[in-house]
Write a structure and sequence with these properties.
Elements: H1 16-59, H2 63-66, H3 70-84, H4 90-102, H5 115-121, H6 127-139, H7 144-152, H8 155-160, H9 165-174, E1 189-190, H10 204-213, H11 215-222, E2 226-237, E3 240-250, E4 255-265, H12 268-285, E5 294-301, H13 304-310, E6 318-324, H14 330-343
Parallel strand pairs: 1-6, 4-5, 5-6
Antiparallel strand pairs: 2-3, 3-4
């Protein structure tokens, strides 16, 4: 008997029931893939930790073994590669050893991060700095390239340099907490991802365009919770048109964040103009459940005294912050933090 292969017996791809079935199967498969990948990652993290444990315990078993040093790792790399193939280079074995030393209790190593994340974290000798990036990578679900970028931009050092001892320790133990508008701020913001050659100068419009063209790294620099609303956002006050350079909405703090870019030093009228923008958004753009807007003026330079006087009695959610196009000096930032901890009796 000949089978009927008429196309009319095939399900209509536009049929709602078929589309629902297709979506269910696809969703189930994707979830299964994600669970499988997570399971593999968990086993891999635990296995590498145990390998590191074996090496360290072998080294600590006696003075003679402790003197093996570099030769031990080279021998292990050679012999384990012969037995198991890739994955046991000397550099990787060195990382496994460090992994155990930095995380002597396996449970302290989060399975929410991949081994590639830990490879980046293990490059940091400072426990406070390493702890911050680990907590922040988990909280903000950073990819490995995002983690690298934040490390290279010295995010921890920039945030910690403006805090007291308690603030530095809290930052290292908990990551950056977003509970109030001031928690959003960084000083300075760093736009090295724009790759503007020094000493090349750009206009405010060009800078704004470049930031919008590199929106993903820009939002990574701004921090967690930002969603882009628009650029040159037009508002009308008393028949006069104004434009806010950049408008975001912060989904955690539930408020608009207005950003104005300045190439030179901030003037008092720039602050007054931002205050006007904030008043407009509070009255005209906010909807039920929105908190008062936050205003941030980003400038290459700022006179602290002028900012203090110009904002006197003004909205406490208006901030003037510095930005720079190139990476800050790491050693200077680190020295500042060490001085803070030393003065506090750390």
């Amino acid at each position: 008997m000949e089978l009927n292969t008429n196309a009319s017996n095939s399900p209509n791809p536009n049929n709602a029931g078929y589309q629902q079935l297709l979506a269910q199967i696809s969703g189930t498969f994707s979830q299964g893939q994600a669970r499988a990948a997570q399971a593999v990652n968990t086993v891999l993290i635990d296995t590498y930790w145990q390998v590191g444990q074996h090496i360290v315990e072998f080294e600590q078993a006696g003075q003679q073994r402790a003197t093996y040093g570099k030769a031990l790792l080279e021998d292990l790399a050679r012999d384990l590669t012969l037995r198991h193939g890739r994955g046991f280079s000397r550099s990787n074995i060195t990382r496994m050893r460090l992994f155990f030393l930095y995380y002597p209790i396996c449970a302290k190593a989060s399975h929410k991060l991949s081994w590639s994340h830990y490879v980046e974290l293990l490059k940091l000798d400072d426990e406070l700095e390493r702890g911050f990036y680990e907590k922040q990578a988990i909280a903000e679900q950073w990819s490995v390239p995002e983690l690298k970028r934040q490390k290279n931009s010295q995010l921890f050092l920039r945030l910690a340099a403006s805090k007291d001892k308690a603030g530095v320790l809290q930052l290292a133990q908990q990551g950056q907490m977003l509970e109030q508008p001031a928690d959003l701020l960084r000083e300075p913001y760093v736009f090295e991802f724009l790759k503007i050659p020094e000493p090349h100068q750009v206009s405010e419009t060009q800078l704004e365009t470049l930031l919008c063209d590199h929106l993903q790294p820009f939002m990574l620099e701004l921090g967690k919770g930002f969603t882009f609303v628009g650029r040159q956002y037009r508002i009308n006050v008393g028949g006069t048109h104004y434009r806010v350079d950049l408008v975001f909405y912060h989904r955690i703090l539930r408020c608009f964040v207005l950003i104005d870019l300045k190439l030179g030093e901030v003037q008092h009228h720039d602050i007054g103009q931002m205050n006007l923008y904030m008043g407009y958004f509070a009255a005209e753009e906010n909807t039920e459940g929105d908190n008062p807007p936050i205003g941030i003026i980003l400038s290459r330079q700022k006179d602290e005294l002028l900012v203090e006087y110009a904002t006197y009695g003004m909205n406490s959610q208006l901030f003037v912050q510095k930005y720079q196009l190139y990476l800050p000096d790491r050693e200077a930032l680190k020295a500042e933090i060490e001085r803070t901890l030393l003065e506090a009796g750390q």
